[in-house]
Design goal:
The protein has about 550 residues and is mainly alpha-helical. It is built from 25 helices and two strands. It starts with 8 loop residues before the first helix and ends with a helix.
Length: about 550
């Protein structure tokens, strides 16, 4: 091209700045996802009533200390249990090891707050354990014997670890599977025992995956509300509820939320920093998988017990307790409140899942079509919603949405003469928006990876045949990625069903979902009435676990 035919620099710059409808839509979606985080920071920086000095002098150190203890303890325990179980499953054959490989994933189906209710019911004074001990030894009351306090921070650590260790197990199992069998054979020929091989070879090579999983676990721990609230452990998340719902101070709640955001960002940076310093490569052109070694005698049964115990504590125990209560109270299954909660859950979670997946497809496709730099830079940032706890997002959504809702209602009343009520915060709109923001990363990751597997020649061929961009998306991309999108739709729906903190803060008055019904009934010690809703939540979670097990075979 001659110099005269080349576009001038200002013209080229204007073309780069010009956005297509797809790029503009992608920017709008990214802005909606990022808005709650920015809203939290803005509200915390300029609160109507600044109670930050009072928080620092009174409750914040306790909130922060308990949160750090929980995060550290749960992270350490899940790291040991998850990576240890993954090592045993991938390296050895012992009784039921093939079954346990998938059974160890099942605790992911039971939310931690359901496990908390079940554990307290099982171990409390009137529960089967203490009642059996009194009957067995002839004790008459609690003064005759010592029993550990059930509602404590130690119990919260145990429940959260039993619910969250599958994250570490899943990622570390994949890392151990990818390691070469040659290194194992060399170490064995040099006389290294099982423990030395694990410490010197397996663990260092799987450390980046384990670190990433532990970071996820710690973020889920700081997000938890149902468990710590039931065990009366004051954390940063319970502090948001206390400051907002009891003191009616949105600015103070936003300031506590910013502390949580700072912890999350620190976790992400630490995890990425650890991965940046660690690099392992398989230099052999013939990668041989590790062959499982048979175990016998006491070692086999010790491995069986080590893998069965977390599964039993995380799934069998809470599942059995909840199921027994549900069977003893059959009338709870036809309670009108349960049916309304089920309908609300299906409506808001189903709508949120569909909107999230559609928005993710639009964003990914728009960024791929765009030559602009800004949409490409914003796309990774939109995943921050998954790292932000639900209570933080609730603060960031409700504060600006409430102001907008009141202005909208005033404007409609001035035009029509009738008060329409709160259209945004008085309906399920805020819940749907929170779920979309919170779980947008799941849908975006699925859409991006699925579109990345499509050869560029296919859409180019469709364009050469006269198809526009919308037709290419509908006729070429969608048939090839619909399986991944269906999985993303299901995962977003399941996570939305289990989400408790954001739902408690954003739901309209007298608007229950399955998660909030479980929490409210269990908080009133009505576990029988909470059990049907809890079983429904668990059943939905089992579908997601089955999908994960199928994808990671």
């Amino acid at each position: 091209m001659s110099t005269a035919e080349r576009p001038s620099a200002p013209l080229a710059a204007r073309r780069r700045l010009r956005l297509s409808p797809w790029s503009a839509g992608a920017l709008v979606i990214a802005a909606v996802v990022l808005l709650p985080i920015l809203s939290v920071i803005w509200t915390a920086a300029w609160p109507e009533t600044n109670i930050w000095p009072h928080l620092v002098a009174t409750t914040l150190p306790r909130y922060l200390g308990n949160s750090l203890i929980l995060m550290g303890s749960v992270g350490a325990l899940t790291g040991v249990v998850g990576s240890g179980a993954a090592w045993l499953i991938t390296r050895y054959r012992f009784p039921a090891s093939r079954w346990l490989e998938y059974l160890l994933l099942l605790p992911m189906a039971i939310p931690a707050y359901v496990g908390a209710y079940a554990l307290v019911d099982f171990l409390e004074y009137s529960g089967p354990v203490q009642s059996g001990l009194r009957q067995l030894f002839g004790w008459s009351n609690a003064r005759d014997y010592w029993f550990p306090e059930v509602r404590s921070i130690e119990a919260a650590v145990l429940v959260l670890s039993a619910s969250l260790y599958p994250y570490v197990y899943l990622l570390s199992r994949a890392a151990f599977r990818e390691q070469s069998g040659g290194a194992e054979e060399v170490a064995r020929s040099l006389g290294r025992g099982p423990w030395r091989r694990f410490v010197s070879i397996g663990l260092p090579m799987a450390r980046p995956a384990i670190a990433a999983a532990v970071a996820i676990v710690m973020m889920e721990t700081v997000n938890d509300f149902g468990t710590v609230d039931y065990f009366a452990v004051q954390t940063l998340t319970t502090g948001i509820f206390s400051v907002w719902l009891q003191s009616y101070n949105a600015g103070g709640a936003a300031q506590i939320a910013c502390v949580i955001l700072a912890l999350v960002v620190a976790l992400v940076l630490l995890e990425r920093g650890s991965r940046r310093r660690l690099r392992y490569y398989n230099l052999s052109s013939r990668h041989r998988p590790v062959e499982r070694q048979p175990l016998g005698g006491l070692r086999a049964w010790a491995a069986f017990l080590a893998c069965t115990l977390p599964f039993a504590l995380g799934f069998l125990l809470p599942g059995a307790v909840i199921l027994s209560h549900a069977l003893r109270v059959p009338e709870a299954w036809v309670d009108p409140g349960l049916l309304r909660a089920l309908l609300h859950t299906l409506t808001v979670c189903g709508l949120a899942a569909m909107i999230t997946v559609l928005a993710a497809v639009f964003l990914v496709y728009g960024v791929r079509l765009s030559g602009a730099r800004l949409p490409r830079l914003l796309m990774p940032v939109t995943t921050i919603g998954y790292a932000a706890p639900g209570a933080v997002l609730a603060v960031g959504i409700l504060v600006p949405l409430a102001g907008l809702d009141h202005r909208l209602a005033d404007g409609l009343e001035a035009l029509t003469g009738r008060d329409p009520g709160l259209l945004l915060t008085g309906t399920g709109f805020a819940l749907v928006l929170a779920y979309c923001v919170r779980f947008f990363a799941i849908a975006q990751g699925a859409a991006d990876s699925a579109m990345g597997r499509i050869p560029p020649s296919l859409p180019m061929a469709a364009r050469s045949l006269g198809r526009n961009r919308r037709a290419v998306l509908r006729e070429v991309h969608f048939p090839l990625i619909r399986g991944s999108l269906a999985s993303a739709l299901l995962l977003v729906f399941v996570d939305a069903v289990k989400e408790l903190p954001a739902t408690l803060l954003l739901r309209p008055f007298n608007y229950d979902t399955l998660a909030t019904r479980v929490h409210e009934k269990a908080s009133l010690e009505q576990l029988g009435e909470a059990s049907p809703a809890a079983l429904m939540v668990v059943a939905v979670g089992l579908v997601a676990v089955a999908l994960l097990a199928r994808a990671n075979r």
